[in-house]
UniProtKB/TrEMBL annotation:
Family annotation (Pfam families): ABM (PF03992)
Protein name: ABM domain-containing protein
Limits of the ABM domain: 8-71
Gene3D superfamilies: 3.30.70.100
Length: 119
């Protein structure tokens, strides 16, 4: 658990972009499932009105996190961010400096663990 990194990325989907957003989400989910074994969870949840989306991502370690971010930036970031606006980005765990560097400019809030467990 100490090496794992997770986050919840919250976005507000732009008017008229829901169908494009869902199509890109499917592309990203399929690619991540097929090519990133260090991704432990990659879940997208949408509000009933189709405006808010929360993206929960969980990685086995900082290396897997950076691998995902490298692919995201190269292939998806510009397209995704043209369809939505980031509203909150909270990172959990103990990411190393490489993750902090990779997330620079995303406005991430870092939360350090102080107790609890995962089964």
């Amino acid at each position: 658990m100490k090496e794992q990194v997770s986050w919840i990325f919250e976005v507000s989907i732009n008017d008229g972009e829901l169908d494009n957003f869902k199509a890109l989400m499917k592309e990203m989910v399929d690619s991540t499932a097929a090519n990133e074994p260090g991704t432990l969870a990659y879940e997208w949840s949408i509000s009933a009105d189709g405006i808010q989306c929360h993206i929960h991502e969980w990685y086995k370690d900082s290396a897997a996190t950076v691998a995902h971010l490298t692919t995201f930036k190269a292939n998806y970031a510009a397209r995704l961010m043209s369809m939505c606006m980031a509203t909150r980005f909270v990172v959990y765990g103990n990411p190393d400096s490489s993750v902090h560097e990779a997330l620079e400019g995303f406005g991430a809030i870092y939360m350090s663990p102080i107790g609890g467990f995962v089964r």
